[in-house]
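Appendix B. Raw example, untouched.
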Amino acid sequence: MKVTVADLRQMNACEDDLEVFTRRWPDGVDLSVETIIEAIWLRLDVSWWAVRTFGAEYDRQIAPLRAEYDRQKAALIMSLIETRTSTE
């Protein structure tokens, strides 16, 4: 699947994301795992695009991944808190 600046404009993407996307992929980009990861690292709102492209199916499939991410993030923070308090 290819995404172009015109596609994003038609979807009413925000100007900041359009600027970053245009700078990196002026002729559009063929999506792959690698280009999606790059877009995430560029802080493009990939989830915004996915919701508008795939709708409820994206929401349904991403929900358990987000929940697991939140659990892991909380565990990391607690581990850091425990490490800090044990060394103080």
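End of appendix B.
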